[in-house]
């Protein structure tokens, strides 16, 4: 008897994870802040991390970039052998206000430059300035390259900070409350920008305190409560009540 013919089944191929966090644990003094966090972010994906104050969102991002030292678990970033794995932007934007927008973006490459050509010298190499202009173009601010950074609005400064992060050429972009200090219009623009960068193939994870923005722009909502992930799914899969419960049943340990 011949075997029945196999019918090919079209399955969506899951995009490969670029950022892989497994079993992440972090303790500050006696306090356990992260209790085995598993999180993957694929190229082209925008993940929103939601959770109440103190639930551990920032600590996850800090452990990825080395601003905090994990006590257990692993963080790996594919394709980051010869370049920084993850670049990060913050709510506090930290541009050098009296330097030009372009110089601030060039500074994203400092880790790749020799000291001789670094921030303290008057001019960055031409190739880097061109690359930085391209990064500024991606965030829609090429026309402001020669303004002092301090003259830009908060939303524009956050976009410059994102351009500076792009200049690090990292495959992963982390954003810690990138829109919390911005008005609704500027916040929308920054979220649209993060969406576009994800669509261009970057793996993006953003801590947000605005569930509505997360629903509109992110591919996946991840809820953190007391150092544990309590849900992870598309905006359609996660009910509004689940999100609301993050903030009503206690976030911090
Ligand atoms: N350097 C530190 N030393 C001691 N405890 C810390 C430190 N950093 C964070 N924590 C504690 O770890 C817990 C998680 O902090 P984390 O900043 O990750 O929370 P979060 O979810 O990002 O909160 P928020 O929304 O307020 O930014 C909090 O209880 C916080 O007090």
From TrEMBL:
One of its GO terms (molecular function) is ATP hydrolysis activity. It comes from the Bacteria. Residues 19-251 form the ABC transporter domain. The keyword Disulfide bond does not apply. Keywords: ATP-binding, Cell membrane, Membrane, Nucleotide-binding, Translocase, Transport. The gene is phnC2. InterPro entries: AAA+_ATPase, ABC_transporter-like_ATP-bd, ABC_transporter-like_CS, MetN_ABC_transporter-like, P-loop_NTPase. SMART domains: AAA (SM00382). This is Phosphonates import ATP-binding protein PhnC 2. It comes from Marmoricola endophyticus. Pfam families: ABC_tran.
């Amino acid at each position: 008897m011949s075997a029945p013919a196999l019918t090919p089944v079209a399955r969506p191929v899951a995009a490969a994870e670029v950022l892989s966090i497994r079993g992440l644990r972090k303790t500050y003094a006696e306090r356990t802040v992260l209790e085995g966090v598993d999180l993957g972010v694929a190229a082209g994906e925008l993940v929103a991390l939601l959770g109440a104050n103190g639930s551990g969102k920032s600590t996850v991002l800090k452990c990825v970039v080395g601003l905090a030292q994990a006590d257990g678990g692993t963080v790996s970033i594919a394709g980051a052998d010869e370049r920084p794995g993850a670049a990060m932007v913050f709510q506090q934007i930290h541009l050098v206000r009296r330097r030009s927008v372009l110089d601030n973006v060039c500074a994203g490459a400092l880790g790749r430059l020799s000291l001789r050509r670094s921030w303290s010298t008057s001019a960055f190499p031409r190739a880097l300035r061109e690359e930085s202009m391209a990064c500024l173009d991606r965030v829609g601010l090429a026309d402001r390259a020669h303004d002092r950074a301090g003259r830009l609005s908060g939303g524009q400064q956050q976009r410059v900070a994102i351009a500076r992060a792009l200049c690090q050429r990292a495959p992963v972009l982390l954003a810690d409350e990138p829109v919390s200090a911005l008005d609704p219009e500027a916040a929308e623009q920054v979220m649209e920008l993060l969406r576009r960068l994800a669509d261009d193939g970057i793996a993006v994870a953003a801590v947000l305190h605005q569930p509505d923005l997360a629903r509109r722009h992110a591919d996946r909502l991840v809820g953190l409560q007391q150092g544990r992930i309590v849900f992870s799914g598309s905006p359609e899969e996660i009910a509004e009540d689940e999100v609301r419960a993050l903030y009503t049943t206690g976030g911090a340990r």
